[in-house]
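Follow-up to my post from last week.
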Amino acid sequence: MKRLLRAAAVLAALSLFLGLSLGLGSCSKKGDEPKKLYIFNWTYYTPDSVIAKFEKEYNCKVVYDSFDSNETMFAKLKAGGSNYDIVFPSADYVSIMINQKMLAPIDRTKLANFRNIDPLVLARSKDYDPDNKFSVPYYMGAAGVAVNKTKVKKYERSWSIFSRKDLKEKMTMLDDMREVMGDALAFQGKSVNSVSDADVKAAEELVNKTWKPNLLKFDAEAFAKGFAAGEFWVAQGYAESIFAEYDAAKRADVDFFIPKEGGPLYIDSMVILKNSKSQDLALKFIDFIHRPEIYAEFCDAFGFPATANVPARALKKGDMWYKAEDLAKCELKLDLGADLEKYNAAWQEIKVGK
Amino acid sequence: MTRNYGKIYAGPQALWLTVFFAAPLAIIVAYSFMKRDLYGGVLPQASLEAYRSLANPTLLSVAWRTLWVSFIATVFTILIALPCGYSIARSGNQAMRLFLVIVPFWTNFLIRIYAWIAILGNEGFLNDLLKILGLRTNSVQFLYNQGAVILVLVYMYLPYAILPLFSTIDKFDFTLLEAARDLGATRMQALMKVLIPNIRGGLVTAVLFTFIPIFGAYAVPLLVGGKDAYMLGNVIADQVTKTRNWPLASSISMGVTVLTGLAAVIFAATSRRTAQHVVEDSGIGPLSATAGIPSGGQA
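User reply:
Got it. Predicted complex:
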């Protein structure tokens, strides 16, 4: 009797499960399916409103998957289990993906809005993709320094702020090797892509001996929340993260600047994968992004200056934390290949702390 | 006509362990002996490079720090869990108290870490309280240091220690304590010499359940730790996601797995032996045999 009961219970559970999954399965097969565009992008890097407009205009469905670092994006693509159309890698990964023959060439004749892209950005993108054969710039920016002006009254807009002992344990920098090492290299007047042992060593010394003792922590995950909560008063990081934590009324309390010495610059690009099944739709999406009013909408959502798109600058309405001109002294981070190991070793030394 | 269903019943578990434990572990072992691909992943060539780079002094000092933090956190966890387990076992409404121990588990792990950030922050509840009480005028820096890491780790793993301790203490025959008092032991002596040796099995389980996960901690040092909170779990994650050295990440994982595995085996073996010693030496063998042996089997 007991066994019978148990069998009945198991059967009931099974049928419930099967019923549920069948039920769910059946609703998605109604009408003819709109075309789908698969996008693989940084976590919330294209506003929902922009995507909704694109879906409406082209009667398609956009599937937005996100990644949090180039490395995880690349690993997922290499593992092969993906059918993405457009990916948004940073400069160094564009060149890696070109070398690995993962990208489809971009048909420029189908991009009417390509002419809107700032020639200065295109000039910089030559370093990783000459003639933009495989990539279209999406956004150019740099990490900067946010200062809580209610707590820190006088300061210089320079990386030297991290040398200030009076702000000890009130400052954070990103937990990001290329960013922090790049800042130290730029501060010492060196290239952020330097592979000279002496340069890397000097940068390591500066971070380890002078900056780190004044830092509370290296943080790339929650720095904006901590900064907004008043845990620390100076944070090196991305403007959009800080922007998201402050409503318009409180923004006057914060000064965000790109230090006068410059620093590492990034360009995130849109690329089409070679095995994409909707290359036409993908090109339409890329062209759509560079419509001035759409580009302005994207930038306004994050407090960005319209760095990559010139006509969008006149259409922007919202606040922005820095201007495209502030990036003039910054230098694009490039793929260092095997020499990256030098940075790894220095960064381990810094993180472990001796 | 009885058939032996043992193998069929064990099937799902065997499948589960193969797919989610043995196979991933085999992949990690394989990766640790391969050559690194410059852009993440591995090249199909055998290499001992990953194990050679283990012997690097910075890595060893992280390992040492991790060991130290795990040790301190485990000691605190056990010291708090022991009286908790005892009081639950002796209380009239065990179900209610156990329920209260388990309730925090209904909340997501990360949310509980952020809750601690809200409590310990410079503008957090604790600092506010200190200021309202007039004990401090400016904030105390509770967050972003080793103390915060240990505090949150103890909080996170406390239930893992309370539950096994409770279950062994619950089986303990408390009349033994009375007998010890009758024979002249003080209250403390009775607890130390009769209770503790008899719940050794639960203690070992509690230590293993807290020490091993703490040794691999990643999110807690990342979120509440300061600039010196870098632990082995963070090194492994960085090797995979930032420096793209998968073989090194695998070899560190192997090192951690082998070390904790060895520690578990040695710890369990010695504790069983000492538990038996106590039974034989203490002269209360016949009495404690009923209470002591079943708990020893839990390790």
